[in-house]
Specification:
The protein has one domain. It is built from 14 helices and no strands. The longest helix is centred in the first third of the chain and has 27 residues. Keywords: Membrane, Transmembrane, Transmembrane helix.
Length: about 325
């Protein structure tokens, strides 16, 4: 069946090990440095800022530097907003409201500026993940860690562009952004606003306690380029997450030190980036334990509840995202 084939088939490799290695290094050095300093509580701020390296993975030097620089500023703004909300003692409803607004604004900006990956997934994750922290770090310290990590990822991006420049142009070219009308941008933002807000509402009412995961899962499908791709992306998110929860359970059962957790995070980041452009389901198998291990590194909690929440809230969010893309189908 074509649908099942699209859900499971690996796409062709395009020297994915090069951006995967660069992105993993952008996560590795800040994490290991913070562990060496005895500040594992700051790793979450570095990990969100390291999303900078994920953008413009196949672009030449100048557009890559521009797009990664813009993405870094947007991610730092999301972290700043999340820190302000966390220090202000906002409750889960405030997190949901902020996530919905950031989803809409971030998606419109990403589309207008031609950012790749498209959509607002990383912006929503950054603001809601930090706003939900029970004990946020001081503002200056957290932003200092985040800004330093983002700058390091920018430098790695420049170096990576120099290496990639030696490859054939056909292997490097990213699809040019499609020019959007104001109506298209408005509809795009509305889809993200509804998906994130409804998923956050459902997650809070469920009482599972991790609404950011539901909101991220809800906006993830909308970034696909067409309606069929959006439907497949939602189903891939569910399938990959459920398989990833099984892998995470096995890894969390190991008696690992923080250093061991950090090394696993780096390895999982490399594997996720190695497959994300080839099959989203496979990438999610690695992204899921990556997110859970990172959570345990900065804020350890009982593993069983964490695994249950991840599975349930991802299913809730992805189904709500699917409902939104089916209901508000774009032309």
């Amino acid at each position: 069946m074509p649908f099942v084939r699209d859900l499971l088939t690996l796409g062709p490799a395009r020297r994915d090990h090069l951006p995967a290695g660069r992105i993993a290094l952008g996560v590795a050095l800040p994490l290991l440095m913070l562990l060496w300093l005895g500040r594992s509580d700051l790793t979450i701020y570095a990990s969100f800022a390291a999303f900078t390296g994920i953008y413009a993975r196949n672009e030449p030097l100048v557009p890559r530097l521009w797009h990664q620089g813009v993405s870094a500023l947007l991610l730092l703004a999301c972290e700043l907003l999340g820190l302000w909300l966390a220090h202000s003692g906002t409750g889960p409803w405030g997190v949901v409201m902020a996530g919905g607004v950031v989803a809409a604004v971030g998606a419109v900006l990403a589309a207008a500026l031609g950012l790749r990956p498209a959509g607002a997934l990383f912006f929503v994750f950054a603001v809601t993940g930090i706003a939900s922290l029970p004990n946020p770090a001081p503002l200056g310290v957290a932003l200092g860690v985040a800004a330093s990590t983002a700058l390091f990822c920018l430098l790695l991006g420049v170096a990576g562009a120099q290496v990639s420049g030696r490859l054939r142009p056909a292997e490097l070219s990213a699809p040019p952004p499609h020019p959007h009308t104001e109506t298209e941008l408005g509809a795009h933002g509305l889809r993200h606003l509804l998906a994130a807000s409804l998923a956050g509402l459902a997650a809070v009412l469920s009482g599972l306690g991790h609404s950011p995961w539901a909101m991220v899962a809800a906006v993830a499908p909308i970034s696909a380029q067409d309606h069929a791709g959006q439907v497949i992306r939602a189903l891939q998110r569910i399938l990959g997450t459920l398989l990833g929860v099984v892998l995470a359970a096995l890894l969390l059962a190991l008696p690992l030190s923080p250093w061991g957790l950090a090394l696993l995070v780096v390895g999982l980041q490399f594997l996720a980036e190695l497959y994300v452009a080839r099959n989203y389901s496979v990438a999610m198998v690695f992204v899921t334990p990556l997110a859970l291990l990172m959570s345990q590194l900065g804020n350890p909690v009982p593993a069983l509840g964490l695994l249950t929440s991840r599975a349930a809230e991802t299913v809730i969010g992805a189904l709500i995202g699917l409902l939104v893309v089916v209901t508000l189908r774009r032309r």
